[in-house]
Design brief:
Blueprint: H1 2-22, E1 27-33, H2 38-51, E2 67-72, H3 83-92, H4 114-120, E3 124-129, H5 136-139, H6 151-161, E4 165-168, H7 183-189, E5 193-195, H8 198-202, E6 211-214, H9 237-248, E7 254-260, H10 262-268, H11 272-295, E8 300-305, E9 309-310, E10 313-315, H12 335-346, H13 354-365, H14 378-393, H15 413-425, E11 427-429, E12 434-435, E13 439-445, E14 455-456, H16 458-467
Parallel strand pairs: 1-7, 1-8, 2-14, 3-4, 3-7, 4-6, 5-6
Antiparallel strand pairs: 2-13, 8-13, 9-12, 10-11
Helix pairs in contact: 2-11, 3-16, 6-7, 9-11, 10-11, 12-15, 14-15
């Protein structure tokens, strides 16, 4: 009888362990489209369809995931979150004040992140972003700081994280190797390699560790160039995702966070065409995770979400003419690069006429071209003339490399051009800031069922730790 009971107990253990194994994810991807609300996604799908003459949306790969839900994004001190508070909620499972990174809003003590816990449990860790890796969202997975703007303090915590791979953007201030307190000294002294060439990144191989790989195609602030500008120096977010999988793939497993950071930046500028191109690039990165998932379906979870929505994007605001997102195909450059071209014009040792500026607008945005349905009205020309006089007659300084959160009291010419094109395409924005909207959550793989109903963003942390079978204790 005792032997029979022992046999039954052993069988039950095998059944339970088998069930646990089925609900265990060795490989977890968390994709965060910064500022990416439902309408940024839907606009991208309509745009892709419009270019093909179709009246049904062309779905992005993550729009086809079996689970499509939402997350609530409130921070500890506001209904409208910022990136550091929202990313910290996902990373730690706790609400954090806006502008703070990974710390208790009352005690100021550090919350341990799921990436830190996964690293302690033996998993390999990758943190990727199309903006700087010391920016709010990526920082929330390895850093703890009172202010998200203390970039140097945050960047110094990269080395102490001991995470295996950081990829994409660089850091705000690398410093000198001769300065023992600099970020580069900290990285070097902790065994990290800081790579900045395409060849170095291409040569990375499975098992390489303690790597910071920076896109050679970045602005001076070390964020990616805009996708719409097709800069030949740039390496795509998709390639960084593919390379991170190659490097981190191992029998124990990994956690990889990938941020599409410039969806947010474009939305702050109300530049929908640029936001669409950034969303497509983000989707291409997710495709690389899907390739891995297809070979590891029983052990992989992919989550796609956002930290918040930016801009309050409205589709179909032009009732009489409808939604015409195909008109956005005539925008050839980002608002930032157009500002840069205007700055170069201002440096010429001659007077630049308004007609010359309008020619540049027509070339880069199609505006003024009647055959494209983009003829400028008298009111629109007057609005552009006002900005021209500010910038080319009164010589008001316009900085194309300003912080994406800095806004002028009056829209500069480049942003007025974008606004006019948006209006003709039938879209509008309610703000240049964040909104309190719920954000989409898409999931596929092991544990996808936990995302089937609306959740709080803190629950993303809890679910990931549950499916990876990692303790959720601080």
């Amino acid at each position: 009888m005792k032997s029979l009971k022992l046999l039954i107990f052993s069988i039950l253990l095998l059944i339970v362990s088998g069930l646990n194994a089925q609900n265990t994810a060795k490989y977890v991807f968390l994709f965060i489209g910064d500022g990416m609300g439902d309408n940024q996604i839907y606009a991208t799908e309509i745009y892709k369809a419009s270019l093909q003459g179709k009246m049904t949306p062309e779905p992005l790969v993550f729009s086809q995931f079996p689970v499509q839900s939402y997350a609530i994004t409130t921070s500890a001190d506001s209904w409208t979150t910022d990136s550091s508070a929202s990313a910290s909620a996902m990373a730690t499972g706790n609400k954090v004040n806006n502008h703070e990174v990974g710390i208790d809003p009352v005690t100021g003590l550090n919350y341990k992140t799921l990436a830190e816990k996964a690293k302690e449990a033996g998993f390999k860790i990758g943190i990727l972003s199309s903006v700087t890796i010391d920016h709010a969202t990526p920082a929330s997975f390895y850093a703890h700081e009172k202010s998200r703007g203390d970039y140097d303090k945050i960047a110094l915590q990269i080395a102490s994280s001991n995470f295996d791979f950081f990829g994409g953007g660089g850091v705000h201030s690398l410093g000198s190797i001769d300065d023992k307190n600099s970020v580069i000294s900290s990285l070097t002294n902790n065994g990290y390699k800081y790579l900045t060439t395409a060849k170095e990144i291409e040569n990375l191989k499975k098992g390489d560790t303690k790597i910071v790989a920076v896109n050679p195609g970045t602005y001076s602030g070390k964020e990616f160039y805009w996708e719409i500008d097709k800069n030949p120096k740039s390496i795509s977010l998709a390639y960084f995702t593919k390379k991170s999988i190659e490097i981190l793939d191992n029998d124990k497993g990994f956690f990889i966070m990938v941020e599409g950071g410039k969806i947010d930046w474009a939305s702050h500028s109300n530049d929908l065409a640029s936001a669409i191109h950034e969303t497509i690039a983000f989707d291409n990165a997710i495709k690389e995770a899907i390739k891995f998932y297809n070979n590891n379906k029983n052990e992989t979870l992919i989550i796609v979400t956002a930290d918040h929505e930016t801009g309050g994007l409205t589709l179909g605001s032009n009732v009489s003419k409808g939604l015409k997102l195909d008109l956005l195909q005539y925008q050839k450059v980002s608002a930032q690069e157009f500002e840069r071209s205007l700055s170069q014009l201002k440096k010429l040792e001659r007077k630049v006429s308004f007609e010359e500026v309008l020619d540049s607008v027509k070339l880069n945005f199609g505006l003024g071209d009647k055959e494209k349905g983009l003829e400028l009205t008298k009111a629109e020309k007057k609005w552009l003339l006002e900005a021209y006089e500010n910038e080319f007659v009164a010589l008001k300084k316009i900085n194309p490399d300003r912080d994406y959160l800095d806004h002028y009291s009056k829209k500069p010419l480049a942003l007025r051009v974008v606004t006019i094109l948006n209006t003709k395409a039938g879209i509008a924005w309610s703000t240049e800031g964040h909104t309190a909207s719920k954000v989409p959550v898409k999931a596929i793989g092991v544990g996808e069922e936990y995302f089937k109903s609306t959740i709080d963003n803190t629950e993303i942390n809890d679910i990931i730790l549950k499916v990876m079978q990692i303790s959720n204790k601080q």
